[in-house]
């Protein structure tokens, strides 16, 4: 727990032609921590994540990753892995090629080593059988898992996961939680995760922020247990409703 | 529910068909409505059954009653309502919002427990949010907006072409940052797969050219000059143009659709998060593929177009293929062929750039992809004609 790996300073995010979705968002994510972004559907979780990873420039405020302000994405070895909400696998490549692409670009490993690593990553998410399939031949949950494997391909020390376990059955979802926890313990992986699964939240998340659409910002932050017992009725209601839904 | 439905249907079904349709139009219809709307002091009283089936009539009746409403308050009294469905409640809530837009307060009062719940569900309890009025643009403002958007489009284009040029320079320095493996597949799709249609259309164009001029040539006994007419027009103009038109429809549209789909499914964003530059990885191979394939296809078009002319010569002008070929050798210079090929390289690059640019500019899901594909084809045709003009003037100035 030295310097934070992700820092957001009074961030405002939104889409052109509309009022900002979120304003004054500030938080730190420490190394080796599992940090969750919570909030109702449409509250701006994915948009906030896009701003954190530099795909969208914030309306105001700043983001630093590993101490670097507004890090550039392209033309250099990525310092973090990203899993998009819909997977965003490359449709013209097989699942295995999707995972090996970053390895081919950013390492000097021989081809068989690249494939061995890519296969191992697919095994992590239980997809070793599906390597030769095209993304269009996968189910929604399989796409997400393949996308997680791709995000982990370059052994990043930080990953951003947008709803990795929504749409998965409880067993696979719990398996994913175990995977994330193991990676955190064994490799010190830092995870920024968007999720709705209350089970996962209590099982793996260290700290979280709750976004509120009406307040246009963060309505609470802290450990999940603290938020669940919050004296703000709205915050408590979020956890109770989520509990009822799952 | 079933019994009331039957009860309502019974008189209608026993009546003759034309009488029924007549009664629908007449005001007598009001008698058959399962509800009533009455205006009293400060409120509108609804009674009976409010359902989707008669929602149109309900809306009309309500509008009639409240259109001339003034004052500060007009409540909707639902105490007499026996049954209401979601559609009807939605209309009541909508009416309430419309009234509050006219500064008339309105509450939905009375009604069963179930009805109250439905009203809450449809937001009838919340203060209605006034809908923002769309500001109509004045003529001058619209004109100004139009000019601004054209300027923006030009700016975007300059930026786009600039980034592609910068990417190309970067790739020359470090070839690994691009994806030259895909060049083979792309060239195959744009080139080899397009050969049959390129052959067919260029043959027909040569054929038609020859046929059109056959009458004139025969008149002067200059039959053999059909080779000159066809040879020069096909190599200089028609083969490059026809081939480019085909490529706009096949490859330009395909690039826009493919990259547009990648854009809306966040694949391009994913590529960036892997440290790969979309310009180098996706655009350059495509533009390069068309720059290579266009002259190859055009050359094929040259040959087959000239053959189309030969066919007309042999069939209706009594020019033997041997004589046609001999005349062709004296009439068509190497410069006719190479200027055509240089043009086609320009067309290929333009089609590739336009297809990719439109793909990258896509937003708004599947409909957005469709829109961009259409725009691509139209823009390509426009660009081809403009480029053709510029090339022609340029070559003329060079004297070739
Ligand atoms: N490409 C876009 N252009 C314009 N507005 C957008 C775009 N994508 C999302 N929005 C808007 O931004 C808001 C937040 O969207 P976002 O995807 O960040 O929500 P979310 O919290 O991730 O929701 P969910 O849990 O459903 O994924 C929504 O109101 C949406 O309308
Ligand atoms: Mg989202």
What do these coordinates show?
The complex is a heterodimer of chains A (246) and B (400). Chain A has helices spanning 45-52, 95-106, 111-124, 140-151, 170-187, 198-204, 224-228, 233-245, and strands at 6-13, 22-29, 34-39, 60-65, 68-69, 81-83, 158-162, 190-194, 207-212, 217-222. Chain A is of the alpha/beta class. In chain A, the strands form two sheets. In chain A, strands 6-7-8-3-9-10 form a six-stranded mixed beta sheet. Chain A has a four-stranded antiparallel beta sheet with strand order 2-1-4-5. In chain A, α2 crosses α3 (111-124), α3 crosses α4 and α5 (170-187) runs parallel beside α6 (198-204). The longest helix of chain A has 18 residues, at 170-187. Chain A starts with 5 loop residues before the first strand and ends with a helix. Chain B has 400 residues and is α/β, with parallel strands linked by helices. Chain B folds into two domains: 33-129, Transcription Regulator spoIIAA (2-Layer Sandwich); 175-398, no CATH class. Chain B has helices at residues 2-14, 17-25, 55-67, 86-101, 113-121, 139-173, 181-190, 195-219, 226-264, 267-273, 278-316, 321-331, 334-360, 365-398, and strands at residues 35-40, 43-50, 75-84, 108-109. In chain B, α9 (226-264) crosses α12 (321-331) and α11 crosses α13. The termini of chain B are far apart. Mean pLDDT of chain B is 85; it is low at 1-28. At the A-B interface, α2 of A face α10 of B.
Morphology call of chain A: globular
What is the overall number of helices of chain A?
A: 8
Task: Kindly estimate the percentage of residues of chain A that lie in beta strands according to DSSP.
Answer: 15-25%
Main sheet of chain B, how many strands, which sense, barrel? 4 strands, mixed
User: What strand line-up does the widest sheet of chain B have?
Assistant: 1-2-3-4
Order of helices and strands of chain B: HHEEHEHEHHHHHHHHHH
Q: Tell me, what's the shape of chain B?
A: elongated
Mean pLDDT of chain A: 88
Radius of gyration of chain A: 18 Å
Q: Note the quaternary state here.
A: heterodimer
Biggest interface found: A-B, 24 and 17 residues
Strand % of chain B is 5-15%
Low-confidence stretches of chain B: 1-28
């Amino acid at each position: 727990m030295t310097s934070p790996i992700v820092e957001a300073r009074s961030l405002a995010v939104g889409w052109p032609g509309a009022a900002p979705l979120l304003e004054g968002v500030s938080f730190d994510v420490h190394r080796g921590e599992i940090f969750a972004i919570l909030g109702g559907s449409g509250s701006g979780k994915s948009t906030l994540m896009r701003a954190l990873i530099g795909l969208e420039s914030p309306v105001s405020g700043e983001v630093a990753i590993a101490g670097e302000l507004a890090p550039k994405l392209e033309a250099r070895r990525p310092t973090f892995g990203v899993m998009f909400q819909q997977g965003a696998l490359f449709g013209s490549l097989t699942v295995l090629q999707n995972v090996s692409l970053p390895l081919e670009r950013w390492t000097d490993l021989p081809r068989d080593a690249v494939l061995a690593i890519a296969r191992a990553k697919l095994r992590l998410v239980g997809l070793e059988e599906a390597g030769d399939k095209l993304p269009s031949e996968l189910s929604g949950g399989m796409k997400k898992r393949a996308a997680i494997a791709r995000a982990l391909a370059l052994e990043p020390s930080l990953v951003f996961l947008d709803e990795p376990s929504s749409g998965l059955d409880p067993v696979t979802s719990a398996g994913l939680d175990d995977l994330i926890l193991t990676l955190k313990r064994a490799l010190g992986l830092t995870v920024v995760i968007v999720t709705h699964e209350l089970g996962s939240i209590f099982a793996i998340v260290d700290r979280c922020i709750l976004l509120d659409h009406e307040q246009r910002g963060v309505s609470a932050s802290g450990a999940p247990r603290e938020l669940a017992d919050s004296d703000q009725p709205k915050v408590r209601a979020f956890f109770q409703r989520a509990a009822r839904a799952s | 529910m079933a019994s009331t439905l039957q009860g309502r249907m019974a008189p209608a079904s026993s009546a003759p068909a034309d009488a029924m349709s007549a009664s629908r139009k007449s005001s007598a219809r009001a008698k058959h409505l399962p509800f009533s709307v009455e205006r009293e002091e400060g409120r509108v009283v609804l009674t009976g059954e409010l359902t989707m089936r008669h929602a149109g009539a309900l809306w009309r009746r309500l509008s009639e009653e409240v259109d001339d409403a003034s004052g500060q308050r007009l409540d909707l009294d639902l105490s007499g309502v026996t049954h209401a469905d979601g559609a009807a409640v939605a209309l009541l809530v909508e009416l309430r919002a419309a009234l509050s837009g006219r500064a008339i307060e309105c509450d939905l009062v009375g009604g069963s427990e179930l009805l109250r719940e439905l009203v809450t569900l449809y937001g009838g309890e919340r203060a209605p949010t006034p809908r923002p009025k769309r500001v109509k643009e004045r003529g001058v403002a619209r004109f100004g907006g139009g000019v601004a958007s054209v300027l923006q489009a030009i700016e975007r284009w300059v930026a786009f072409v600039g980034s592609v040029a910068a990417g190309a320079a970067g790739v020359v320095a470090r070839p690994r940052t691009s994806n030259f493996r895909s060049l083979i597949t792309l060239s195959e799709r744009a080139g080899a797969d397009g050969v049959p249609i390129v052959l067919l259309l260029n043959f027909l164009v040569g054929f038609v050219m020859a046929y059109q001029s056959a009458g004139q040539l025969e008149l002067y006994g200059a039959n053999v000059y059909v080779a000159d007419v066809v040879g020069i027009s096909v190599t200089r103009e028609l083969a490059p143009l026809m081939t480019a038109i085909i490529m706009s429809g096949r490859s330009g549209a395909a690039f826009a659709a493919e990259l547009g789909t990648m854009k809306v499914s966040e694949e391009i964003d994913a590529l960036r998060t892997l440290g790969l530059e979309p310009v180098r990885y996706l655009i350059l191979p495509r533009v390069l593929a068309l720059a290579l394939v266009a002259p190859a296809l055009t050359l094929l078009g040259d040959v087959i177009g000239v053959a189309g002319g030969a066919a007309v010569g042999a069939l209706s002008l009594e020019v033997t293929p041997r004589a046609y070929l001999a005349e062709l050798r004296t009439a068509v210079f190497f410069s006719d062929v190479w200027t055509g090929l240089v043009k086609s390289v320009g067309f290929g690059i333009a089609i590739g750039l336009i297809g990719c640019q439109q793909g990258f500019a896509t937003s708004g899901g599947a409909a957005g992809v469709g829109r961009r594909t259409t725009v691509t084809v139209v823009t390509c045709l426009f660009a081809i004609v403009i480029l053709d003009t510029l090339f022609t003037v340029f070559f003329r100035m060079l004297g070739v």
